[in-house]
Amino acid sequence: MRHFSSFSFPALSIATALLAALPVMPALAQTGLEAPAASASATPSVTLDTLFSDLKHERDDQKARRISERIWAQWRDSGSATVNLLMQWADKAVSDRKNGLALDLLDQAIVLMPDYVEGWNRRATLHFMMGNHGKSMVDINRVLTLEPRHFGAIAGMAAILSESGNDELELRAWEQMLEIYPANRQAQQKVGELADKLAGRKT
Questions:
Q1: pTM for the whole structure
Q2: All domains of the chain in start order, with CATH
Q3: For residue 55, what are the contacts with CB-CB under 8 A and spacing of at least 6?
Q4: Taking CA 44 as the corner, what is the angle to CA 38 and CA 50, rounded to the nearest 5 degrees?
Q5: Cα–Cα distances in Å, from 129 out to 124, 125, 158?
Q6: What is the DSSP string of 179-195?
Q7: Distance between CA atoms of 201 and 178, rounded to whole angstroms?
């Protein structure tokens, strides 16, 4: 069951609206949409637009997941050997729980390539892990400016909204996610749960 389908909203507007009032929340919510750890193969001749079109029309969960992995593979590749190396080092630093070092490395990657979407997304994820949810939302805002279809960033935004207790905006975020990635099981489940929860409040 889907609600709020009668009006359209940009995911970016949710992120912008929350920046001033977002409370600081210490726990990390699991979105289930982190970039796959292993590099997925992507055919360079297949554009992101084509992959997103395929993702939008695919209803099989496993097939859609494979398409999403190809999208992640393209997002991860900055086209710069230096930036890619900084991102690898940042991942290693996070694994070693050296969050300060990871943050410095991601800052460098963003300075070198400010239009590299995954640099901002990875830093948003790190801020989220560190409990800096306001800073995470700022970076999510930038991600969605550069790539409004970034379902990973939208899921991160939904996680922050969940912890802030804003069910209506969280529902909108998950609905936006389903517009891009209809076969995503987590988004389907969240939309159903939140729609039922909000409907229950009105009865």
A1: 0.80
A2: 11-18+45-202 (1.25.40.10)
A3: 64, 67, 68, 71, 180, 181, 183
A4: 100
A5: 9, 6, 15
A6: HH-TT-HHHHHHHHHHH
A7: 24
Question: Tokens 């969050």 identify what position?
Answer: 99
Question: Cα(66)–Cα(194) distance, rounded to whole angstroms?
Answer: 27
Within the chain, residue ranges assigned H as helices are 11-18, 48-57, 61-76, 81-95, 99-112, 117-129, 133-146, 151-164, 167-180, 185-202
Contact between residue 78 and residue 35 where contact means Cβ atoms under 8 Å apart: no
pLDDT at position 47 over 90:
yes
Copy the structure tokens of residue 23: 């409370």
What is the per-residue DSSP string for 71-89? HHHHHH--S-HHHHHHHHH
Distance spanning both ends of the chain, measured CA to CA: 16
Sequence letter at residue 85? L
Asked whether the predicted pLDDT for residue 37 surpasses 50, the reply is no
pLDDT, one tens digit per residue, over 161-198 is 999 999 999 999 999 999 999 999 999 999 999 999 99
**d(C-alpha 181, C-alpha 186), whole Å:** 11
